[in-house]
């Protein structure tokens, strides 16, 4: 089986979560999970009723918490692994497409590229959902994760030469994108979350894999310490100069673009293939669904493509909200050398 091809099986973790694979290791993590869960602080959920705080991070109590414990307890990283790491709604879908297309550019032609018929999420297995299903994948593995850098096991960060491509985005756009997306997925029996509520929760750090600023700072600091291992990107820069960023991505992935490829316009082809305008208009991304077996949730692919703009927060946030979130951002990032646009 060619595992690097898009595979609908990349979410097969449900087998694991549902306990159908019966091993001592799984039992141990499940026990740890069952013992830990009742003692964790709870906050209001955006998509689920609650989020729980584990090791300082807010997670959905079922899939995300179990996924994290799984990775911490059992994932066997390889030195050649490449992870696409993101906080949700910062550009995951886009970077997945770009990474997949860049990494596999000699394997697929642009006219019949897998991304024309597969949602980007179907192209890169989600580590947090299937850590033990990945053992059979040939190296080098391209995987994705939402786990904050500081919560990853040492086996992935300190002890291995695994690489991470990380993308962040202006928190105001992340908040708005997340609020609109989560309300679409929120079960009908739960009342929708108002923007005011979402704003408050986000500012307090209570959102999936939040606090947002801590997530960003974890990868930012790691990128300063080990730039060869952590590539730190910004959604806004990718929008501004996609070709420049794709070339950096190529180098980071260990596949720099040759002069010939550049003169043949390969970089631009990748940028075009993965552009919002192209991906959001494909049949697969307009009408198909992504089944997240681990959470039993089905997501319409079109929800991953809303506007794809920088600064759409201006249509939603009040001046007061902007002032508060900007203040939090300045405070949190103070002295880090990292800034977001105003
Ligand atoms: N190709 C491309 N180019 C530019 N922007 C894109 C692209 N694909 C998705 N998007 C926009 O990214 C936002 C979704 O973020 P994520 O992909 O991180 O979401 S998720 O975590 O995977 O659910 C969401 O942003 P908003 O439009 O602001 O809501 C998407 O529209």
The CATH topology label of the domain at 59-168 and 211-308 is: Rossmann fold
Broad shape: globular
What is the assembly state of the chains in this entry?
Answer: single chain
Q: Helical segment tally?
A: 14
Ions and ligands: 3'-phosphate-adenosine-5'-phosphate sulfate
Residue share in helices?
25-40%
Any low-confidence stretches, pLDDT <50, length ≥5?
1-22
Count the beta strands. Answer: 9
Kindly provide the radius of gyration, computed on alpha-carbon positions and rounded to a whole number of angstroms: 19 Å
Q: What sequence of helices (H) and strands (E) makes up the elements?
A: HHEEEHEHEEHHHEHHHHHHEEH
Examine the secondary-structure arrangement and name the CATH architecture of the domain at 59-168 and 211-308. Answer: 3-Layer(aba) Sandwich
CATH top level label of the domain at 59-168 and 211-308: Alpha Beta
Biggest sheet details: 4 strands, parallel
**Mean pLDDT reading:** 89
Cα separation of the termini: 48 Å
Strand order of the largest sheet: 5-4-6-7
CATH superfamily of the domain at 59-168 and 211-308: P-loop containing nucleotide triphosphate hydrolases
Protein name: Sulfotransferase
Organism: Gossypium aridum
EC number: 2.8.2.-
InterPro entries: P-loop_NTPase, Sulfotransferase_dom
């Amino acid at each position: 089986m060619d595992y690097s091809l898009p595979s609908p099986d990349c979410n097969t973790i449900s087998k694991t979560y549902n306990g159908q694979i019966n091993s001592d290791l799984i039992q141990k993590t499940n026990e740890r999970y069952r013992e830990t869960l009742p003692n964790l602080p709870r906050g209001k959920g955006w998509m689920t009723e609650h989020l729980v705080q584990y090791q300082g991070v807010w997670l959905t109590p079922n899939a995300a918490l179990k996924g994290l414990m799984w990775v911490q307890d059992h994932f066997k990283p390889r030195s050649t692994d490449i992870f696409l790491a993101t906080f949700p709604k910062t550009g995951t879908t886009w970077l997945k497409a770009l990474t997949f297309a860049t990494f596999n550019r000699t394997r697929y032609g642009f006219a019949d590229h897998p991304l024309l018929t597969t949602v980007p999420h179907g192209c890169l297995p989600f580590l947090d959902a299937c850590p033990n299903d990945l053992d059979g994948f040939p190296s080098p593995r391209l995987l994705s994760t939402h786990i904050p850098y500081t919560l990853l096991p040492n086996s992935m960060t300190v002890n291995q030469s695994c690489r991470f491509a990380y993308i962040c985005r202006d928190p105001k756009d992340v908040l708005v994108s997340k609020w609109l997306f989560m309300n679409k997925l929120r079960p009908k029996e739960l009342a929708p979350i108002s923007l005011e509520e979402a704003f408050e929760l986000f500012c307090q750090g209570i959102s999936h894999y939040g606090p947002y600023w801590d997530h960003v700072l974890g990868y930012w600091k790691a990128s300063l310490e080990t730039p060869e291992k952590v590539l730190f990107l910004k959604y806004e820069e990718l929008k501004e100069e996609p070709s420049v960023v794709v070339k950096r991505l190529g180098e980071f992935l260990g596949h720099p673009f040759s002069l010939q490829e550049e003169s043949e316009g390969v970089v631009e082809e990748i940028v075009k293939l993965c552009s919002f305008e192209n991906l959001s208009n494909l049949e697969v991304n307009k009408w198909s669904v992504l089944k997240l077996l681990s959470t039993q949730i089905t997501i319409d692919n079109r929800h991953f493509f809303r506007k794809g703009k920088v600064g759409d927060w201006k249509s939603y946030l009040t001046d007061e909200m902007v002032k508060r979130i900007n203040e939090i951002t300045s405070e949190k990032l103070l002295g880090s050398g990292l800034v977001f646009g105003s």
